[in-house]
């Protein structure tokens, strides 16, 4: 049993889900094919949670991606309930979610369905499922990754399908700026990727979604009609907006992340000099447990670095937090313009670490 669905974005967009008891208007006993009308990542993840609960993890957010670049590009950061590494979504990356009972959970069957669709559309295409549950093109390029959540009686499996995503943004935001990073979380495995549109410009998201829905319906002997749903509709999905709000809170996005440590350095240009500053941090559940900052003593008094490190200890791993704490400490500094300029430069670089 399952229910096709399509969430795509980072954003997320429409793919495939299936559920025996989705409690949606017009739902039959055999399953549904749903397509979200939203490209909001939080709304679509909330719908996954909602359906999973009706039919009845850890992600390393703060460490693995380039958070500063994401903020600059306006890319939303979300934490999902399934396991696995960090995933980039835009409107050229389809997300398919398959819901089922725990007993009937089989991700390989879902991936083979997608491969079957691709080969039916383009018989000459060399596409296969790997032992890691990735779908690869030409034996080399990854076009789909997988994650899952297994409950006591229910489960869901979701996978991506690269159609026309912005690969330059994908590679840049998934590349962590941190040197000396260690974490207990599941790490993403870097792979060469390729869009299906690069293989054939006719393989649009719309074509793929329609073909996958039809194949899914045929395999499970259900109506291939795709039901469009609004992930903000409380009449159809009671309580959905509270779930969406929860997924946007700091406590969920950062506060439940596994412990990680950073041992790094950054270079600061000041007047005619380039100065190296070393930083060591341990972060647990999104809060800094240990912090050491070492700047050249001839440039900035060690006491100021120690004061900043002391202030950051116990605070959220968050650039806004650095701004507030830095301003507080700055008020205790002597009225020395040069010292204040150095302090502001140091604090700005600390902000960029987060």
From TrEMBL:
GO cellular component: mitochondrion
Origin: domain of life: Eukaryota
Keyword Lipid biosynthesis: no
PROSITE patterns linked to this entry: BPL_LPL_CATALYTIC
InterPro entries to which the protein is assigned, alphabetical: aa-tRNA-synth_II/BPL/LPL (IPR045864), BPL_LPL_catalytic (IPR004143), LipoylTrfase_LipoateP_Ligase (IPR004562)
Catalytic reaction annotation: N(6)-[(R)-lipoyl]-L-lysyl-[glycine-cleavage complex H protein] + L-lysyl-[lipoyl-carrier protein] = L-lysyl-[glycine-cleavage complex H protein] + N(6)-[(R)-lipoyl]-L-lysyl-[lipoyl-carrier protein]; (R)-lipoyl-5'-AMP + L-lysyl-[lipoyl-carrier protein] = N(6)-[(R)-lipoyl]-L-lysyl-[lipoyl-carrier protein] + AMP + 2 H(+)
Domain BPL/LPL catalytic: 39-224
GO terms (BP aspect): protein lipoylation
Keyword Mitochondrion recorded: yes
Group of enzyme by EC: transferase
Keywords attached to this entry: Acyltransferase, Mitochondrion, Transferase, Transit peptide
Role this protein plays: Lipoyl amidotransferase that catalyzes the transfer of lipoyl moieties from lipoyl-protein H of the glycine cleavage system (lipoyl-GCSH) to E2 subunits of the pyruvate dehydrogenase complex (PDCE2). Unable to catalyze the transfer of octanoyl from octanoyl-GCSH to PDCE2. In vitro, it is also able to catalyze the transfer of the lipoyl group from lipoyl-AMP to the specific lysine residue of lipoyl domains of lipoate-dependent enzymes but this reaction may not be physiologically relevant.
Protein name: Lipoyl amidotransferase LIPT1, mitochondrial
Source species of the chain: Tinamus guttatus
């Amino acid at each position: 049993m399952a229910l096709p669905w399509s969430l795509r974005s980072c954003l997320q967009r429409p793919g495939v889900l299936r559920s025996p008891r989705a409690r949606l208007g017009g739902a039959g006993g055999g399953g549904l094919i749903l397509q979200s009308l939203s490209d909001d990542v939080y709304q679509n993840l909330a719908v996954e949670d909602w359906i999973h609960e009706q039919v009845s993890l850890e992600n390393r957010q703060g460490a693995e991606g380039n958070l500063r670049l994401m903020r600059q590009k306006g890319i939303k950061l979300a934490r999902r309930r399934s396991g696995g590494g960090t995933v980039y979504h835009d409107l050229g990356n389809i997300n398919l979610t398959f819901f089922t009972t725990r007993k009937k959970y089989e991700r390989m069957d879902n991936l083979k369905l997608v491969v079957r669709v691709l080969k039916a559309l383009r018989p000459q295409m060399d596409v296969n499922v790997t032992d890691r549950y990735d779908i690869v093109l030409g034996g080399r390029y990854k076009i789909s990754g997988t994650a899952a959540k297994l409950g006591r009686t229910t489960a869901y499996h979701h996978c991506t399908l690269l159609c026309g995503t912005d690969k330059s943004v994908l590679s840049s935001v998934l590349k962590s700026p941190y040197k000396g990073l260690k974490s207990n979380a599941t790490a993403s495995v870097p792979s060469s990727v390729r869009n299906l549109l690069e293989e054939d410009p006719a393989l649009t998201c719309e074509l793929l979604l329609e073909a996958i829905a039809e194949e899914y319906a045929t395999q499970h002997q259900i109506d291939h009609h795709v039901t469009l749903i609004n992930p903000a509709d409380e009449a159809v999905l009671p309580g959905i907006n509270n779930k969406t709000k929860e997924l946007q809170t700091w406590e969920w996005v950062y506060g439940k992340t596994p412990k990680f440590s950073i041992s790094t350095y950054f270079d600061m240009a000041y007047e005619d000099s380039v100065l190296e500053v070393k930083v060591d941090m341990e972060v647990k559940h999104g809060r800094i447990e240990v912090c050491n900052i070492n700047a050249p003593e001839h440039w900035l008094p060690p006491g100021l670095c120690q004061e900043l490190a002391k202030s950051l200890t116990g605070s959220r791993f968050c650039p806004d937090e650095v701004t507030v704490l830095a301003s507080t400490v700055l008020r205790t500094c002597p009225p020395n313009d040069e010292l204040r300029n150095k302090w502001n430069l140091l604090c700005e670089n600390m902000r960029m670490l987060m």
